[in-house]
Write a structure and sequence with these properties.
Elements: H1 3-9, E1 13-15, E2 30-32, E3 42-45, H2 58-63, E4 68-71, E5 84-86, H3 90-102, E6 110-115, H4 120-133, E7 138-142, E8 145-147, E9 153-154, H5 165-177, E10 182-186, H6 189-193, E11 204-207, H7 215-218, H8 221-229, E12 237-241, H9 245-250, E13 257-261, E14 269-276, E15 281-287, E16 290-296, H10 303-316, H11 321-329, E17 339-341, E18 353-357, H12 362-372, E19 380-384, H13 395-405, E20 408-411, H14 421-429, E21 438-440, H15 444-454, E22 460-464, E23 471-474, E24 477-480, H16 483-492
Parallel strand pairs: 2-3, 3-4, 4-5, 6-10, 6-11, 7-10, 11-12, 12-13, 13-14, 18-22, 19-20, 19-22, 20-21
Antiparallel strand pairs: 1-5, 7-8, 8-9, 14-15, 15-16, 17-18, 23-24
Helix pairs in contact: 3-5, 4-10, 4-11, 10-11, 12-13, 13-14, 15-16
Length: 496
């Protein structure tokens, strides 16, 4: 694709300071909005942000090999010899250019987008799992990372945390090239408001819930709702939680919709007779395809709603009720999100219930431990650290909440960087308000081994903070890390 072709796709006005004949017909190799990421042959999109105007970085992009610039109007004080494509919305143009250069991969996939304040990640992983159990080769894009149909979790490249539209389109292209027929996208309000998924063709949109969050970005709760609701104007089919008042408000905007309720309210998908057990949830589902008993190896009653949403979205893709029920029974969990570590074999059941979770703030820890207390038969343990070179004010409150809500607390490392783990632990211990139900083991492997060796078989041990992260940041650099592997090794060696 050449610059003139891209101008037509974007319906842009092409301002070229040189005669087109002198351009040589260079092929566009990619598109980016970050001058530091620019590669030879790229088109640079100059976005006017809250803190900087991308036009100021045109010289940097040109020096890196950019062959054209896209923007909402070239400022009078900016001079460039590159062709300039003037558009009405630069972020929209970035997304549309990225999709065009990737070959519009979402049109070759059945795409499920999942949005809401809570439950997005878990529902996305459940939906991906059920799609695959129904025989659909499916990719996944979530905050934990992304997967192609091979099921291997990949972390995002270092230069971005939340994918921008060029990365979204590149990942979708990878999915298609790997043989995917479907894709599940965890779709945040930021991704919607900033047009990161603008050029994605969604087949199904799922609404989990909405509560006050990210108002520093959206401004008001109303705008937060509108940004999330924009997904449903683009999808052919909607799955909506009617236990959520904002979900009920969304319903009139959905032309083709199925509803779900974990509370037993009137809906297309309803959970009844919900029971929580130490290692699983059970309930009866009533839906348009019949009635069935469901068992899912997850903890936390809120996951019943997530399971219903995933069932409804996957049924839309053609799965039978039997496939959905069987698939839920085999769900391995979300890496690092209330993830049950379940050893198998003849000694199954002789181990403490072990859970890995990403919770790393006082509020998240309070919610996590409060959720797990009712289904904990004996002692509740939590292993937690605080990162170095980060918000030091939360260290004391983390010590307070964990020693108040858990029976045994193990303070350990969590990305200490060049901040001594001993000092971080001392600051956490200083917040315990005189409680003594804690111990300090700075090395995280030793701490996990201690906890899983000394906990009783009716205890619950929560490994908090790291989740599915693949490294620990220490003073000398990043060391590889796999929390689940360390936990499995400790459990396997238990009592040997």
């Amino acid at each position: 694709m050449h610059v003139h072709e891209l101008a037509e796709i974007l319906d842009a006005t092409l301002l070229d300071p040189e005669a087109p004949a002198t351009r040589g017909g260079e092929e566009i190799t990619g598109v980016t909005h970050n001058a530091a990421w620019t590669q030879p042959g790229n088109v640079f999109v100059a976005i006017r942000g809250a803190r900087a105007d991308g036009h100021a970085f045109i010289p940097d992009a040109a020096a890196a090999g950019a062959i054209a610039v896209v923007g909402e109007g070239l400022p009078a004080d900016v001079i460039t010899s590159l062709p300039y494509l003037e558009v009405s919305d630069a972020r929209t143009a970035l997304a549309e250019a990225a999709a065009a250069l990737a070959g519009a991969p979402s049109r070759q996939l059945s795409v499920v987008g999942i949005t809401g304040t809570d439950g997005k990640t878990t529902t996305a992983w459940l939906t991906r799992h059920l799609h695959r159990k129904a025989g659909l080769r499916t990719g996944l894009l979530s905050t934990v990372g992304y997967e192609l149909p091979d099921g291997i979790l990949r972390q995002f490249p270092d230069h971005f945390t939340t994918p921008e539209s060029p990365q979204v389109q590149a990942i979708l292209r990878e999915m298609v090239d790997a043989g995917a027929r479907a894709a599940v996208l965890e779709t945040s309000s930021h991704a919607l408001a900033l047009k990161r998924v603008h050029a994605v063709d969604f087949d199904t949109a799922v609404w989990t819930n909405l509560s006050s969050e990210h108002l520093d970005f959206h401004g008001t709760l109303e705008q937060y709702f509108e940004d999330k609701a924009s997904l449903f104007a683009r999808a052919e089919f909607a799955v909506v939680n009617v236990d959520d008042e904002w979900g009920r408000r969304l319903l009139p905007r959905c032309a083709n919709v199925e509803t779900y309720s974990a509370s037993g309210a009137e809906a297309d998908w309803v959970a009844r007779d919900v029971e929580e057990h130490p290692t699983h949830l059970s309930f009866t589902v009533e839906c348009p395809y019949g009635e069935a008993a469901v068992r899912v190896p997850m903890v936390g009653p809120f996951n019943v709603a997530n399971a219903l949403a995933a069932m409804a979205a996957t049924a839309r893709s053609g799965a039978s009720l039997e496939q959905l029920v069987n698939g839920l029974a085999e769900f391995p969990g979300v890496p690092g999100r209330m993830q049950l570590v379940l050893p198998e074999g003849p000694r199954e059941g002789a181990f403490p219930r072990t859970i890995i979770d990403f919770a790393h703030t006082p509020a998240a820890l309070e919610n996590l431990l409060t959720t797990l207390r009712p289904s904990t038969e004996d002692r509740l343990w939590v292993l937690i650290g605080a990162p170095g070179q980060r918000d030091t004010t939360k260290r004391g409150p983390m010590g307070e909440v964990t020693t108040r809500l858990a029976d045994v607390v193990v303070f350990t490392e969590d990305d200490p960087r060049d901040d001594p783990a001993s000092r971080i632990i001392a600051e956490m211990a200083a917040g315990t308000q005189g409680r003594t139900n804690y111990l300090a083991i700075p090395d995280r492997t030793e701490a996990i081994t201690y906890a899983l060796t000394h906990a009783g078989e009716h205890d619950t041990v929560v490994l908090a903070g790291k989740g599915a992260e693949m490294f620990i940041a220490r003073e000398h650099g990043d060391d590889p890390w796999d929390e689940a592997a360390v936990a499995f090794a400790a459990l396997a060696a238990r009592d040997l």
